[in-house]
């Protein structure tokens, strides 16, 4: 077909622009793309096969593991193990690290194999999220501690969203590209290049069932979002999927803000820093947005453990800045990122 660019073609062309490139990161991204096709195929026929429902165990966070969680986890690890360029994988579904090609592996990959697992059995959008770091130079016997790098050291990040269509978005620090899976071709086709998040949006996304557990600043901000005001296009629309990849994807395309705050129930928030918040913050920042934890830039947090949680407020620049105003009024200082 004339005029179509596949994920593989695009990655190879991008690689060729850098004469010193080894092609290893390109291969890693292609491996993830292959795993995404397999997961998408299984997701789309999940109701026809015996892959719906709980597997019967719990993950490291005490959450019920779905059969599709395990399938996605296995497919991504298998794909990353094919090329001997990934030395270590850290997954939401594994308590510790998964060691792959320790001698040759150049990259460390964090991943949430199937984000939004509670949506699986009711046919609502789910996703996969990944984050790629370099193996520290000169380290032979790589350890879990070597994987504890801040988000600013990511060399690539992205997500796959399994919804009305399957889309793959990624960045290597040179902007954001989105590819849509054409099931008739079995290929991801470039559908959005140099994606930019709107500077302002009239959509807010959060789990309002937890409202009573929030701090006063966030409660006042949500009330602000709900108040009618023609000059600022309020009230905002409330949208919440319960899958961070889906909620952030909508925010990326339409603008607005996604929030999963700290609360009296979850003092450190509930979403995971390394394989949810860092990669999606990288995407949003590369598209011109902002991502904070309520005190600082998400990607500047020095992680203390591979599965640690963080509050997150992410989206259009003006929406996040307005939220910061509410935090400041309540005496909560925020170090505003200067990107």
Write structural notes for this entry.
- The protein has helices spanning 7-16, 24-44, 67-81, 216-226, 244-254, 273-286, 317-329, and strands spanning 54-58, 64-66, 86-91, 98-99, 107-115, 126-134, 154-162, 166-171, 176-182, 187-192, 203-205, 237-238, 257-260, 271-272, 290-292, 309-310, 312-315.
- With 339 residues, it is of the alpha+beta class.
- The protein has two domains: 7-192, Fructose-1,6-Bisphosphatase, subunit A, domain 1 (Fructose-1,6-Bisphosphatase, Chain A, domain 1); 203-329, D-Maltodextrin-Binding Protein, domain 2, CATH 3.40.190.80.
- Strands 4-3-5-6-7-8-9-10 form an eight-stranded mixed beta sheet, with helices on both faces. A five-stranded mixed beta sheet has the order 12-11-13-17-15, with helices on both faces. Strands 1-2 form a two-stranded antiparallel ribbon.
- A hairpin with a 5-residue loop joins β1 and β2.
- The longest helix has 21 residues, at 24-44.
- The radius of gyration is 20 Å and the shape is globular.
Instruction: Give the % helix.
Output: 25-40%
Radius of gyration: 20 Å
Q: What does the main sheet amount to?
A: 8 strands, mixed
> Tally of extended strands?
17
Spans with pLDDT under 50 lasting ≥5 residues?
Answer: none
**What string, H for helix and E for strand, traces the elements in order?**
HHEEHEEEEEEEEEHEHEEHEEEH
Oligomer: single chain
Mean of residue pLDDT?
91
